[in-house]
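The instructor's notes for this session suggest beginning with a concrete chain rather than abstract definitions. Hand out the sequence below and ask the class to guess, before any prediction is shown, which regions might be ordered.
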Amino acid sequence: CVVKCQQFVEKHCLAYCLMALSSRCGLLRAVVYNCLARFEQHLISQRFYCKEQILTMLTLLKHSIKKTNLKLAPIVALFLSKLVDLFTHPESKLYRTITRFLLKQSYIDLVHIPLFSELFHSSTIEYKYERGWILNLLKYGIKDSIDYTLCTKAYVFKTLMTFYDCSLCDDSTKLEILNIFYSRSKLQDVLMSLLFDYGFLWLQVIAKNWLRKI
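After discussion, reveal the predicted structure:
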């Protein structure tokens, strides 16, 4: 059976496979790794518009896997699946940035938040879009304590708290930052860490500032 790789990509099947690499079910991950290997074999012999980008990403992913049936952090898996979506939209404002990122890498660092600093502190003309994209990744990608640990290593939460009070932070960005903290507060272990490790007095200060404006 020959897989039509373009349809497999455009119907989001590849993105779903990449997300499944973050599953806690080892059997499911094993099936998905096998599926990705077979997809790559089919992809090599076919031609369509984003073939090279996808092949590059899959090659980098293979170089990054140091352990059999490795479970990816959900936020990293979401990052990879969002890359596939970008590959199918070359008109995207992030397309060139992502392409350059992949070409510069020999592997994908699976224990860090990919491109966080580059996109959040972007100085390009599209800085608002790039910052919004990485904030969206944080909003929906932090699913468990593994993601929280990666964010802590990258100083994500300290960066967000500091930037919130910066004059460069507009209201829409402030709302996105608050949404990130709100959505993560539903994870009990993450909430406890925010309270004890960060004190989370920052939120109290923010609340007081909002009350003054009312």
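Then share the key points. The chain has a mean pLDDT of 89. Residues 205 and 211 are 10 Å apart (CA to CA).
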